[in-house]
Amino acid sequence: MKNEQNTASNTKIISKPRIISGISFIVLSVVLLLSFISYLMNWKADQSQAGTMSDKTVESSNLFGKIGDWLGNLFIFESIGVAAFIVAFLFFVFGTLIFKKNYFKPWKTISHSLFFICWIPIFFGAVTNGEGVLGGVYGYQIMDYLKSYIGLVGLWMVLLVSFVLYFVLEFNLRPSSIKNKLNDINDNTFGRLKNMMPNSEEEFEADEDLEEEIIPENPAVIETLTPKTENDFSNIKVTQDFEPIKTPNQTSFKEETKESAPEPIILSSATAQPQKPVIETPVIKSEDDFAFNVEIKKDEDFPVSSEQQKSDDLVSRHGLYDHKLDLAKFQMPSVELLKDYGNEEITINKDELEENKNRIVGLLKTFNVGISEIKATIGPTVTLYEIVPEAGIRVAAIKKLQDDIALNLSALGIRIIAPMPGKGTIGIEVPRKNPTMVSMRSVVASPKFQSADMDLPIVFGRTISNEVFVADLAKMPHLLMAGATGQGKSVGINAILTSLIYKKHPSELKFVMVDPKKVELSLYSKIERHYLAKLPDTEDAIITDNAKVINTLNSLCIEMDDRYELLKNAFCKNIKEYNAKFAQRKLNPENGHRYLPYIVLVVDEFADLIMTAGKEVEHPIARLAQLARAIGIHLIVATQRPSVNVITGMIKANFPARVAFRVISGVDSKTILDSPGAEQLVGKGDMLYFNGNDLTRLQCAFVDTPEVERIAEFIGEQKGYSDAYLLPEYSGEEASSTVGAFDPNEKDALFEDAARIVISTQQGSTSMLQRQLKLGYNRAGRIMDQLEAAGVVGGFNGAKAREVLISDLNSLERLFDELKGR
Ligand SMILES: Nc1ncnc2c1ncn2[C@@H]1O[C@H](COP(=O)(O)OP(=O)(O)OP(=O)(O)O)[C@@H](O)[C@H]1O
Fold first, then answer.
1. Ligand 1 atom closest to 491 (CA)
2. The listed CATH number (3.30.2350.10, 2.60.40.10, 3.40.50.300, 3.30.980.40) that belongs to domain 350-431
3. Is 297 annotated as a binding residue?
4. pLDDT of residue 717
């Protein structure tokens, strides 16, 4: 309807003079065409009549009489020979253009025509050497002129070269496109011929070869597009009422049906070259014994892409790819390997409970804080007293009493949570006199952990309400741990590693272990050929030398980049999708695809590393922390000294999940958790877990060294891989040059504004800073260097913009605070 209206309005726009001139041009083109044809047929007679226009006694043999003669003589004989037909054609083109019909592209048509109007007469002049009318006088004379200058051979060369050049320039012909065209022709003709022979083995192989040639990189992704047009025949139903068409002869309608039905097109993502599949045509035999081929497109008729077909075939022959097959007999460690520490049931000491309650109530009363309700929840290490204050009592007033309450209860580790998140209460955590130990065995055996449907489940221990607490490292996606010496950090790391080992097969998980203290992680060397990753040509998988850490971190960055490349080629968003696709045999190992295990980097004493290697360690860690989550590299970084020069803003910004064991001061607690509280913990695995939003107090599960040893031995005794998982080689020269340390005194006045612009636009570009802040290049460049030194952006990256290392403005503000504190 809309189209009709459009056409109607289009017709109305054409004015009468336009119609008249359009028709005139078209009529003139027809007159010219017929006159020229007629002239060519009788040119000798017609030519002899030239100049007898006014003589009525002389009769013309041209279709258009003497005018026809005259036109033919003028355009063909006296000028451009048969190229005159192009003039007639141009008149026709002008006519259609006046009618606003876009049958021809005006400038292209004119330029093509002009070329041939020049070339054809000379060509025919050279072929006929001036005999006849094909080249016209113009053609002959130009040819003659050229011949006298450049000779006959030169003339032909000019003609040929100009002809070839014309095609090359006009149609943008290049050797590659010619090859593609030839392939197309080959595909369309020979391919079709082959397709006409169903079940032919050669046909399948040929297609497969062709497919492989076209999509070498990623043969897996082929989309099938089914054009849904008005002509789509998918809804045609052959019913019993169908009356066969009766014709006396044997007739086939196959050709006709094919023409009208649109053919499905297979578009390969790599080449986007359409290929036409064969559609089977059922043959209906009519009474009259003629073959009537009807095409019915059913869903199953739509071709499955050959890659899909291939992977389906492979899966049906060999089943899904099993990454565990190399170590098919590997036995996961049993819970029995962990020590049973006896009864872990929480015993309620009513006297202790009552005493604490009375003290709290009494104390609050002396400070005029009325309580309407009090409730106790007993956990393994602390008891949580939840208070509902009387109406009108300010939370801040209770918060202020924290020290007084602690003093009065004469207990370490009192923590006041005012208000309790999600509840209308105030929480007071009071450590128990006899805490219950949480064994690793009890939490590993718990249904919550056993049935945890997570990529990298970690069972930390138990919450304040004695529930098993399980978190997914893959979601964190990196973990920062801090705690003063002797407070349970090493046990915590062992608990994390043990949880992962209990849940993941060696083919699914690899650890890169950095242990500057040399003794903490040495137990794990026994599982080197099962669970550890290392640099090629290194002896020990567990890295104790700080110089080697830099190489390993940079090698992990290369592994990360390689993995991103693999994911990109496989059109996958994350490692999970990628591995699933690999298991379905959709990714060809010959193209570098492989099953990707998760890699967990564990750094036991980060402070030590930062002190010795500084930015050289900080940069790759920050880079990994920022980018590695999608490709399955996760970081666990632990430190004894949570000071700001160890846990820098750049590190903190990229580690949303944090664990704090007991720390020495409130400042340390603020550094690690962004809030106080960790200094109030009681130690021995009492910890706070911060997931970026909520703070949860947990009792870490206890796993002793002999238990870890037993697990490592159990795994180490089993058949492993021939070597540890090898990381990509890294040669130190690749290390990027770094700018000096950030100096707050030399900070540009616009430093913070510039940082905010960079973070909000996520573009580390100097010219963008120039534009936004209206600065000269030098100053913008200086600010960019300062941003790099502060860890806001990455190093200079050639022509590309610098990598932005901080993802949001909140993290940036925290970095500013931290920089001010330096
Ligand atoms: N979850 C826990 N449950 C019970 N006791 C614990 C727990 N964690 C630690 N402990 C006790 O605290 C001691 C010290 O723990 P751990 O070795 O983990 O400390 P650390 O923080 O690693 O110290 P360092 O940094 O000096 O190595 C342990 O030997 C153990 O007795």
1. 18
2. 3.30.980.40
3. no
4. 92
485 marked as part of a ligand binding site: yes
Q: What is the pTM of this model?
A: 0.56
* Residue 108 structure tokens: 């292209």
What are the residue boundaries of the structural domains of the chain, listed by start? 11-173, 177-318, 350-431, 456-728, 736-821
Residue 662, ligand 1, Cβ within 6 A:
no
- Contacts (Cβ under 8 Å, ≥6 apart) of 455: 472, 473, 474, 475, 576, 598
Q: Whose CA is nearest to atom 9 of ligand 1?
A: 488
What was the pLDDT predicted at 630?
86
Residue 705 Cβ contacting ligand 1 at under 6 Å:
no
Cβ contact 248:255 at 8 Å: no
Containing 698, the helix (H) or strand (E) segment is strand 695-700
Question: Is there a contact between 670 and 690 (Cβ–Cβ < 8 Å)?
Answer: no
Return the pLDDT at 734.
Answer: 43
Segment 111-128 mean pLDDT:
87
| Cβ neighbour number for residue 347 with a 10 Å cutoff | 9
* Cα 220 from Cα 569, distance rounded (Å): 9
The number of the ligand 1 atom at minimal distance from the alpha carbon of 487 is 21
Range 456-728: architecture per CATH? 3-Layer(aba) Sandwich (3.40)
Residue 703 Cα to ligand 1 midpoint, Å, equals: 9
Q: Is 702 in the pocket of ligand 1 (CB under 6 A)?
A: yes
Whether complex ipTM tops 0.90: yes
Confidence (pLDDT) at 213: 37
Side-chain-side CA neighbours of 721 within 13 Å: the count stands at 21
Q: Is 488 annotated as contributing to ligand binding?
A: yes
Cα(469) to ligand 1 centroid in Å equals 19
Residues 763-786: what's their mean pLDDT?
Answer: 80
Omega into 506 within 30° of 0, i.e. cis?
A: no
Q: What is the pLDDT of residue 342?
A: 79
- The percent of residues in the chain predicted with pLDDT above 70, rounded, is 76
Say if ligand 1 is within 6 A of residue 486 CB.
yes
| Cβ of residue 380 lying under 6 Å from some atom of ligand 1 | no
d(CA 789, CA 806): 13
Residue 139 marked ligand-binding: no
Q: What ligand 1 atom has the least distance to the C-alpha of 640?
A: 25
Ligand-binding annotation for 483, yes or no, is yes
Does 194 score more than 60 pLDDT? no
304: its two tokens:
């499955």
Q: What is the CB neighbour count within 10 angstroms for residue 371?
A: 17
Pairing type for strands 686-690 and 657-660 reads antiparallel
| 809-821 and 751-761 helices, crossing angle to 10° | 150
Give me 176's structure tokens: 């590659």
What's the pLDDT tens digit per position in 550-572? 889 989 998 998 899 889 888 99
Angle between helices 546-569 and 615-627 (to 10 degrees): 30
Which three-class secondary structure state does DSSP give residue 761?
helix
> Tokens 């002509």 label which residue?
231
Of all protein residues, the one whose alpha carbon is nearest to atom 22 of ligand 1 is 490
DSSP labels, 37-86: HHHHHTHHHHHHTTT-TT-TTSPP-STTHHHHHHHHIIIIIIIIGGGHHH
The finding on whether 684 has its CB within 6 A of some atom of ligand 1 is yes
The whole-angstrom separation of Cα 783 and Cα 788 is 9
Residue 646: partners with Cβ closer than 8 Å, 6 or more residues away: 606, 607, 610, 611, 639
Residue 108 marked in a binding site: no
Phi and psi of 60, rounded to 5°? -95, 145
What is 725-763 written as a DSSP string?
Answer: EEPPP--GGGPPP------GGG--TTHHHHHHHHHHHT-
CATH fold of 736-821 reads Arc Repressor Mutant, subunit A (1.10.10)
Span 614-624, pLDDT tens digits: 778 888 888 89
List, in sequence order, every residue forming a beta bridge with 388; answer none if it has no partner: 373
